[in-house]
Amino acid sequence: MPARIPDGPTAPGARLTVLAGPTAVGKGTVSADVRARYPQVWLSVSATTRAPRPGEVDGVHYHFVDAPTFDRMVAEGEFLEWAVVHGRNRYGTPRTPVLERLAAGRPALLEIDLAGARQVRAAMPEARFVFLAPPSWAELERRLVGRGTEGPEERERRLATARVELAAESEFDHVIVNDEVARATDELIRVMGVPGG
Predict the structure, then answer these.
(1) Which of 112, 114, 88, 110 is nearest to 97 (CA)?
(2) Alpha-carbon distance 46 to 120, whole Å?
(3) What is the pLDDT of residues 81-111, one digit of tens each?
(4) Element (DSSP H or E) covering residue 19
(5) I want to staple 105 with a disulfide (CB 3.0 to 4.6 A). Which of 11, 18, 41, 134 is the partner?
(6) For 27-81, how does the pLDDT look when each residue is reduced to its tens digit (9 = 90+)?
(7) Model pLDDT, residue 148
(8) Is 51 in contact with 167 (CB distance < 8 Å)?
(9) Domains in the chain: how many in total?
(10) What is the tens place of the pLDDT at every residue in 141-156?
(11) Is 10 contained in some domain?
């Protein structure tokens, strides 16, 4: 089995930022806004065993992999973090691209779930941890229903997970309320200390 990829050196001033928050809070939307408006920020692309949603592109939104491929990546230590999300699908952050961007001094952003954020904190405590919060519980429910990508049973599962995730807000260095995407993005960029942000 190949050796585990080391947590290698990073360039001076390079710092990983982890963005987490409950389901349907808009993590993907804020990340897409960062990608569109701040191209100097590198966004990590997670691997997942779930099927693509309409409009999602392999290698852009996620690396869509089958279960045996994900198992091999876990066994070979290729993930910085990975987790089973909502009791069903697995998601993971490939380690090497993150370390390469940090070594090059490029601002790097991970958009992951709470369990993944906790694993990254254990592996890279020097990272910056940002919690994206909804304006209210009612708005979070509205966004999840409005997304229209989950049935009633899956929505209830995700809302139960969201209650647990919201209770973890105090574990994070910064909290940003996603009441308006562009404003939340700009606040994230300021927290990250991105030049020109």
Answers:
(1) 110
(2) 14
(3) 998 876 789 999 999 999 999 999 889 999 9
(4) strand 16-20
(5) 11
(6) 989 999 999 999 999 999 999 999 998 999 999 889 999 999 999 999 999 999 9
(7) 67
(8) no
(9) 1
(10) 888 777 767 778 888 8
(11) no
Instruction: Please state, in angstroms and rounded to a whole number, the distance separating the CA atoms of residues 176 and 132.
Output: 5
Predicted TM-score (pTM) of this structure:
0.82
**Residue 62 belongs to a domain:** yes
Give the number of residues written for the chain: 197
Cα(83)–Cα(25) distance, integer angstroms = 19
| Burial environment of residue 167 by CB neighbours within 10 A (0 to 12, 13 to 18, 19 or more) | exposed
Residue 10 tokens, joined: 């990073």
Burial class (CB in 10 A: 0-12, 13-18, 19+), 13: exposed
Q: Which CATH number belongs to the domain containing residue 109 in this structure? A: 3.40.50.300
> Domain range spanning residue 172?
16-192
Is 126 part of a structural domain of the chain? Answer: yes
